[in-house]
Amino acid sequence: MILQTSVSYVKVSMITSNIILLLSEAVVYFGVMAALLHGRNRYGLGIFVCALGVMHFLETYLAAVFYIQLPFGIISPGSTVLFSGKLMMILLLYIKEDALVVRQPIYGLLIGNFLLVALIMIARNHETVQAMPGRQPDMQFVDEMGSLMIWGTILLFIDSIAVILLYEKLGRFLARCRIIRIFVASALTLTFDQIGFFAALRVVSDTPMSALIGGWVAKIAAAFVYSFMIEAYLRFDQQSTGGRALSVRGVFETLTYRERYERLLEESGRDSLTGVLDRRSLDTDGPQLFARARKEGTTFSLIAIDLDDFKSINDTYGHQTGDSVLQSAARKMMTHMRVGDHFYRYGGEEFIGLCQGLSADGSTALADRLRVAVEASPHQNVQRVTVSIGIANYPGDGDSFEQLFARADERLYRAKRTGKNRVVAG
What we know:
Blueprint: H1 2-38, H2 40-43, H3 46-53, H4 56-65, E1 68-70, E2 73-75, H5 77-96, H6 99-123, H7 139-174, H8 178-205, H9 210-236, H10 248-255, H11 258-264, H12 279-296, E3 300-307, H13 310-317, H14 319-336, E4 342-347, E5 350-356, H15 360-376, E6 387-394, H16 401-417, E7 423-424
């Protein structure tokens, strides 16, 4: 009796210890990743994306061979903490930014992981030598890991798009319950992932069925914990950067690059130097887009942009460099506009952005993202390129396209007069 009690106590202690360690791992993972995401405007998004991708091999390895006991079955911290955490961070990046930004790590992870597997498959054909006694590469294990990584990478790609689309779809019913919206979207996606990845584990390594149920319960618990941490972070960091108003279809087309194909159909009316829409297109599109927004009862924003000190760039470096700077700046700003926005070269070093469905805060956030993108980008041999931006919004700043244009132009030059490299919205 005493022995049984002692064994039970040890088992309970072990399970308690496992749960505490899992929670600690989740808190550390989320804390570091959230800090990197929070600092993206100062240090760039690349640090966050690299940190997101470096642990894929570890996730797969732990999911294949490293299991712990919990009351509802055996689970792997690789799947429960790391993979679930990665998916939740992708969703958080989407919430803080938009589909245009989040698709970059989604495709980067897909390509990077496939590249890793391809290099492993090539390297395994080397004729190896025994450099250390008793140490030989386990090629069967390498093959198993390679197949699991390929399948896991495909699932991650599907999961990343699915969780974002589910989050947007649930917005119709749970717009005021963000934490529930996050949890339901991630729980459904992780359920699909658990079934899909367990099928591969079962084939490759004959993983027991208890890992299917245990892993599923653990992933739902992880979705619950991460949802609370995401909600806490969003309440802490309330600075808006998205402001998007896209349909689920629009998000899907952005995530799958379909809008690139559609842009190929709009080649007429382009500025020959920068490739963006030209002034003639603006003269035609502007009043029509404004009239449509007014008829539909939606907001409309006009963003006027001017490169700072562009004449001195031409005088110092030559007109060829000046043209290169214009092309680079236009390209950077275009990549940060939302799908459905319109972007024009008005003349010289001036550009105009037209956006429908943005709040005043959303248009300011978008404009500041354009400003940061230009300043942070290399421009041939020019050390620093900045832009000044003026914004006008409907309703509030005018009842016609011409009035909005005049107001945005006035604010643009106020930005110039008050120090440049800034956004003026009111």
